[in-house]
Amino acid sequence: MPLSTARKTEYFTKMKELLTDYSKSFVVEIDNVGSKQIQQTRIALRGRAEMLMGKNTMMRKCIREYVEENPGTPIAQLENCCRGNVGFVFTNGDLGEIREVLESNVRPAPARVGAVAPIDVIVPKGPTGCDPGQTAFFQTLQIATKITKGQIEMTADTHLITAGEKVTASQAALLQKLNMEPFTYGLVLKSVYDSGSLFDAKVLDITDDVLAAKFIAALNTISKLSLALNIPTQASVTHSIANAFKAILSVTIELENYSFDKADIYKAYLADPSAFCGGGGGGGGGGDAPAAAAVEEVVEEEEAPPAVDMFGGGDGGGGDY
């Protein structure tokens, strides 16, 4: 039954107010979602977001009128989202929190004939509770069974329905006999509108950790290219310093009359490695302390150059500056 003129005017006013008052919104798909479930979602969102459902033609017309009244508004992008069985969830809060509420409000549902299966359905092996007279029904579905204690028992797990296929009458009847509700339905997030930008809801899966990992990987790539092309950049400067230190150290070790603080420990070690070895057991334990400290310092110094890759890379690439 079509809405009266007064109801349409009220609806248009409501939607325009929401478009004005809220800078963020979700476009949600509500296939197979009942009115009770929608009402429960409204209650869960109370105080944080508002949900608006309606006919696509009415929502598109309302958006067009809003754009005419507010030329240049990015709200015009939402008109193309009014396709299929969809609605809007408006909010000024955190999109991640609202998303959690929407995705958590799901309900189990039986498999109905003709419905498209959103997931694979696997019936586990075991007793079914069906009497032996229904064996032919299981044979029709090519399910191996045996009779145990006066009831039919499935001998193996059965892949009954594949995701994307339509549920047949026999499949729906079997799941009903087994009291199984294999599907869950809830609001499906399709798109997100945020302060003039419209993007896929999957973008919300990108966390700060994911962005940081991508950024570090990009810096590592830039560092490798810079070293290979002999073009210094901020990303490769740590590798350049490490390579330069190794080059200077290799020259200094060959010079008898020249050294510097960081090279002294290396030259001392190469001149007399035994001085850095711990003494044999027995007394005089105090005499080993300086040697142990020196060995530890040597190890730290030798490990220092490779550890400069702060961007997650391995070796420092090639090329010295």
Q: How many individual helices? A: 10
Q: Which fold name is given in CATH as the topology of the largest domain?
A: Alpha-Beta Plaits
Order of H and E elements: HEHEHEHEEEHEEEHEEEHHHH
Uncertain segments of ≥5 residues (pLDDT<50)? 281-287, 291-295, 297-321
Protein name: 60S acidic ribosomal protein P0
Region (Disordered): 302-321
Family: Belongs to the universal ribosomal protein uL10 family.
Domain Large ribosomal subunit protein uL10-like insertion: 111-179
Describe this structure in words.
The chain is of the alpha+beta class. It has 3 domains: 5-106 and 186-205, 2-Layer Sandwich (Alpha-Beta Plaits); 121-181, Molybdopterin biosynthesis moea protein, domain 2 (Alpha-Beta Complex), CATH 3.90.105.20; 209-308, no CATH class. It contains 10 helices and 12 strands. The strands form 4 sheets. A 5-stranded antiparallel sheet has the order 2-3-1-11-12, sandwiched between helices. Helix 1 (5-21) crosses helix 3 (56-69) and helix 9 crosses helix 10. It is flat, with a radius of gyration of 35 Å. The model is unreliable at 281-287, 291-295 and 297-321 (pLDDT under 50). Keywords: Ribonucleoprotein, Ribosomal protein.
Which descriptors apply to this entry?
321 residues; alpha+beta; Alpha-Beta Plaits; Molybdopterin biosynthesis moea protein, domain 2; 3 domains; 5-stranded antiparallel β-sheet; 3-stranded antiparallel β-sheet; 10 helices; flat; disordered C terminus; uL10_eukaryotes; ribonucleoprotein; Ribosomal_protein_uL10; 60S acidic ribosomal protein P0
